[in-house]
Amino acid sequence: MTLEQILERAKQGNRKRIAVIGAEEAGVLTAVSQAADQGIAIPVLIGNKEEIQTIAEESKISLKDCEIVHEADVSQSAKRGVCMAAEGYVVAKPQSG
């Protein structure tokens, strides 16, 4: 299966919320922004909100379809992501089929 086929298949399903822990990097923000723009996922960015927004602005990355959950401490970010997955708010693992 080609990358294009994988992306097309992902677009055909219901968009899932995915947690991104420690999202304070331009490369990460670029990837989640593209996933949101392509209709593949609804990113939930967990980390330092101010830092995430600053990096996005400086790198000209749109986060319009992303949710940001402020958690300044990395270990607390991870715990928050685990709780969100346990509650079913975000996908804990890729869905098959």
Quick structural overview:
With 97 residues, the chain is α/β, with parallel strands linked by helices.
Describe this structure in words.
The protein is of the alpha/beta class. The protein has helices at 3-12, 26-37, 49-58, 74-86; strands at 16-21, 41-47, 67-70. The chain has a 3-stranded parallel β-sheet, with helices on both faces. It is globular. The protein starts with a helix and ends in an 11-residue tail after the last helix. The model has no long low-confidence stretch (mean pLDDT 88).
**Residues in helices, as a percent range:** 40-55%
Structural class: alpha/beta
| Counted beta strands | 3
Relative strand content: 15-25%
Q: Which geometry do the CA atoms define?
A: globular
- Mean pLDDT across the residues is 88
The topology string of helices and strands comes to HEHEHEH
Distance between the termini: 14 Å
Radius of gyration: 14 Å
Low-confidence stretches at least 5 residues in length (pLDDT < 50)? none
Output the number of helix runs. 4
Question: Main beta sheet, described?
Answer: 3 strands, parallel
Strand order of the largest sheet: 1-2-3
